[in-house]
Amino acid sequence: MTLASPTYQGLINDAAQQLHETSDTPRIDAEVLLQHIVQRNMAWIIAYGDTIATPQHIREYYIVIEQRRQGQPVAYLIGYRDFWTLTLAVSPAVLIPRPDTEVLVENALARLPENTPLNILDMGTGSGAIALSLGKERPLAQVLATDLMPDALQIARANAQSNQVDNVTFLLSNWCENIPLHAQFDLIASNPPYIEPDDEHLQQGDLRFEPTTALIATDHGLADLNTIVEGCRHYLKPNGWLILEHGYNQADALAKKMRQCGFSDIQLHTDLNNLPRCTSARLPHQH
């Protein structure tokens, strides 16, 4: 604790300074973490910014600021992350949903007509970000969300309930392994692990604290992407769509794999930084 009788605004100013070396967004982090501790929104903090903070708030605030200073992700410290139109609970058992993944959701929705009964599959659902966003936007659809990790499915189920999305079913499965043989989908989506095991980014930022099973794939990060492309063909309806998130340098290898597996209309979609982020493709006929 560095201030004798700090105001709420004083706490933010001090914390932002402390987080300067850890975070790219020190002031935002400081504000979000204070909102979490006092259980009030930013409007309240602005209105009462000159009020002396309570000793309990000060104590609790500096505990989370220190955790953040050590690199722990804000989303894990406050227990949630906003994604699309949802507020999703997150824990170290799941990947923290990223704004860039909304590009996948956006392009998936463009391929899913409204007011139509559809079948959608989200593989490796984690917190449920993709499955729940699609389910919320397409209420007549039936969405199946799978994950290999029971802890992740527990969080995804809780997120379905808290966001009042009731058209998503959850299944424990390693990619296609436990999907019913007769199941047929209009669209299959996934944000699988695609980072190479020796990628230096794994030692930086939030990635250090996230589950490696959700991040790392062998074969230059392509192993799981390739498994999905090969396996999902049997589960797509004729002219069904596959849409996959991938690394910025994997688009060519993925497109090649998709072509080899009979996909057409292969389209690359860029993220908020204009980097390759996901690829969609159509399966013209069943194999």
TrEMBL record:
Q: Domain (Release factor glutamine methyltransferase N-terminal): give its ranges.
A: 11-79
- Residue ranges of every copy of the Methyltransferase domain listed in the record: 118-259
* Statement: the UniProt record of this protein carries the keyword Transferase: yes
- Which PROSITE patterns is this protein grouped with? N6_MTASE
* Gene3D superfamilies named in the record: DNA helicase RuvA subunit, C-terminal domain, Vaccinia Virus protein VP39
Enzyme Commission number(s): 2.1.1.297
Record's InterPro entries?
Answer: DNA_methylase_N6_adenine_CS, HemK-like, Methyltranfer_dom, N5-glutamine_MTase, PrmC_N, RF_methyltr_PrmC, SAM-dependent_MTases_sf
Q: What keywords are assigned to this protein?
A: Methyltransferase, S-adenosyl-L-methionine, Transferase
Which residues participate in substrate binding? 191-194
- Summary of the function given for this chain in its UniProt record: Methylates the class 1 translation termination release factors RF1/PrfA and RF2/PrfB on the glutamine residue of the universally conserved GGQ motif.
UniProt name for this protein: Release factor glutamine methyltransferase
Organism of derivation: Arenicella xantha
Q: Which gene encodes it?
A: prmC
